[in-house]
Amino acid sequence: MMEKRILIGGSGGQGILFMGKVIASAAMMDGKEVTWFPSYGAEMRCGTANCAVVISDERIGSPVFKYADILVVFTEASLIKFAPRLNKDGYLLYDSSLISCNSSVYKGAIGINVTAMARELGNTKAANMIMLGAAAAITGILEKEDLLSAIEGDVSECMLQALSINKRAILKGYETVENQKGDLFGHRACT
């Protein structure tokens, strides 16, 4: 890996910024150079939220980039807004529970039903961690152990209460990809 640019988009309350923070922490644990650049609206919930993460083997010149290697979206508005910023050979992952993706427009997009899976785990707020596990398994950017260590390293009281569900959610994301790898990569289309 020379440098990977990751863009995550959604709305407030979906854990977009936390997902980016975990990616950055896990990459740092792996000895990588990292930037994490959050952006959000004034609203606490349901406003816009996105973050850009750059992971590199070398020093990073700027946290700002035009094109992403990996785009993860949780809302239709984010899909429309950020899809033009995806590199030609990049990965587009989206929450197929919340977004209906037109496969003729977004070729190669990978839909993962993360909100529905999080509901099965008992907490829809864990959808971001399921997506994180799935994205890491699909793209190979981070190791499972680094992700689990990164969420264990966030010792705020709020995160300690969610630690167990977040761990299970990351593992669920990995498991989903491992069980469906042929389907996901056979046609990399909207499902």
Distance between the termini: 29 Å
- Total strands: the figure is 6
**Largest beta-sheet characterization:** 6 strands, mixed
Strand content: 15-25%
Q: So how many helices?
A: 6
Instruction: Name the helix and strand elements from N-terminus to C-terminus, one letter apiece.
Output: EHEEEHEEHHHH
Q: Which residue ranges are poorly predicted, with pLDDT under 50 across at least 5 consecutive positions?
A: 185-191
What spatial order of strands do you see in the largest sheet? Answer: 2-3-1-4-5-6
- SS-based class: alpha/beta
| Mean of residue pLDDT values | 88
Apparent shape: globular
Question: What keywords describe this structure?
Answer:
single chain; 191 residues; alpha/beta; 6-stranded mixed beta sheet; 6 helices; 43% helix; globular; disordered C terminus
Protein described:
The protein is α/β, with parallel strands linked by helices. Helices cover 43% and strands 24% of the residues. The protein contains 6 helices and 6 strands. It has helices spanning 16-29, 76-82, 114-121, 127-139, 144-153, 157-187, and strands spanning 3-11, 33-40, 48-56, 68-73, 86-95, 110-112. A 6-stranded mixed sheet has the order 2-3-1-4-5-6, sandwiched between helices. Helix 2 (76-82) links the parallel strand 4 (68-73) and strand 5 (86-95). Helix 4 (127-139) packs across helix 6 and helix 5 runs antiparallel to helix 6.
Question: Helix and strand layout, with pairings?
Answer:
Elements: E1 3-11, H1 16-29, E2 33-40, E3 48-56, E4 68-73, H2 76-82, E5 86-95, E6 110-112, H3 114-121, H4 127-139, H5 144-153, H6 157-187
Parallel strand pairs: 1-4, 4-5, 5-6
Antiparallel strand pairs: 1-3, 2-3
